[in-house]
Amino acid sequence: MKHSAGLSFIGTFSLTLLAIAALFTGDTFLAAVDRKESDVEAARLFREGQSLLAQGDNTKAIDRINDAIEIDRGNRGYFRTLAEAQLAAGKTSETEQTATDLLESDPTDGQASLLMARALTKQDRYQEAISYFHRAVYGHWDQDQEANRQKARFELINLLARRNSRQELLSELLSVQATPQDAKARLQMGNLFLQAGSPARAMDVFRQMLHTPSANADAYQGMGDAEFAQANYRGAQRYYQTALRLAPADLAVRHKLEVCDQLLDLDPMLRGLTTEERFQRSLKLVEMTLAEVNGCQPQNTPPDMQPLINNANAALQAHVSPLRQGDVAESNLDIAEQLWQVRKKEICQSPADADRPLALVLARLTQ
Q1: Do residues 200 and 259 share a domain?
Q2: What is the pLDDT of residue 260?
Q3: CATH code for position 243
């Protein structure tokens, strides 16, 4: 009897275990089915959100993506796209919070860092944005890592160019200088080197473009701009002339060529001038500077201005023998420089001074 009862207990216990196992397996299976159905629904909502975002309906896109996240909170891709939609909708604070949540769980997330940088840029928080751009450049990307890192770096470069942060811009440009690029990107690179205050490096870029079969007016204009930035106006003139032959309707190049022509006609320091030519140019500079001063029409002439005006008028009326023209030319240039400096400091200064032949020549004399 005892043996029979023991067997009965064991059998009952085994059946109970089998039933529990069957129930557990069934529950697990049903849970897996439910989870799969939930994932499918989340993916459907997410795709709908992506479609709305592509159509520019950012508010509805945010709602759909949030619905997807409510179902599947572990999908980082959903959160990244949510941040993109929030940024597109102008919700920079929400974008910043979403990116912060992503970076708290993975500080190396390159896309989250880039979205944070963009949000901070829109809030004019540039130094913070620059830091996150760097994190995006060196962060981890799930796809196309090198291409996305380059994209982030060029976004940073464009920001630095807009901010005219020349030293930082130059540093970033040097890091991508050796990267293979098409003609359009090389042209942009050369112009950015000019903006960063490195015309010699800009010339290296433009010169490479000239050695290709597809060399065009833009490349010659770039070389002209680089020569001009180094005050090599004769070289700039030649490149602008070539650029204008290739693009006769380009008014910007035509204007730059005209400025070069005027500079070369006015510059008293140009090599090869005779003593008389240098003297005549010094007189011309005095005359033009005096006209600029008179054109400002100040209400009260500064005390140090009137003696300079008197000296300028005397120089224009003086009769100078050929033997004294060299010494008098130096004196005339001093008068023009002093008159110009007082004009800038105490009377008036045009925003366009830096691009005018007279200003450029006088600035070169003071170097």
Answers
A1: yes
A2: 94
A3: 1.25.40.10
Contact between 244 and 254 under an 8 Å Cβ cutoff? The reply is yes
Domain span at 216: 165-266
3-state secondary structure (DSSP) of residue 60 = helix
How high is the pLDDT of residue 31? 45
For residue 4, pLDDT over 70 is answered with: no
Can you tell me the distance from the alpha carbon of 141 to that of 98, in angstroms, rounded to the nearest whole number? Answer: 17
* Mean pLDDT, the chain, integer: 87
Stated pTM of the model: 0.76
State phi, psi for 271 to the nearest 5 degrees: -70, 145
Residue 356 lies in a domain: yes
**Where do the H-state alpha helices sit in the chain?**
2-54, 58-71, 76-88, 92-105, 110-122, 126-138, 145-163, 166-176, 183-195, 199-210, 217-229, 233-246, 251-266, 275-296, 305-317, 325-342, 357-365
Q: How far apart are CA 244 and CA 7, in angstroms?
A: 106
Residues in contact with 231: Cβ distance below 8 Å, sequence separation at least 6, in sequence order: 360, 364
**Encoding tokens for residue 164?**
């005219």
- Domain end position, chosen among 209, 242, 266: 266
Q: How far apart are CA 313 and CA 113, in angstroms?
A: 64
The pLDDT tens digits of the residues spanning 261-297 come to 999 999 998 888 999 999 999 999 999 988 888 877 6
> Which tens digit of pLDDT belongs to each residue from 18-35?
656 555 555 555 544 556
Decide if 152 contacts 134 (C-beta within 8 A): no
pLDDT of 359: 87
290: nearest Cα among 329, 347, 328, 330: 347
Same domain membership, residue 279 and residue 261: no
The verdict on residue 317 lying in a domain is yes
Give a yes or no: residue 19 inside a domain. Answer: no
Last residue of a domain, one of 232, 266, 300: 266
Instruction: Tell me, yes or no, whether 226 and 306 share the same domain.
Output: no
The answer to whether 46 touches 68, Cβ cutoff 8 Å, is yes
Distances (CA, A) of 215 to 209, 328, 329: 6, 47, 44
Name the phi and psi angles at 299, rounded to 5: -70, -40
Q: Which of 145, 128, 125, 127 shows the shortest CA–CA distance to 137?
A: 145
Q: Would you say residue 80 lies in a domain? A: no
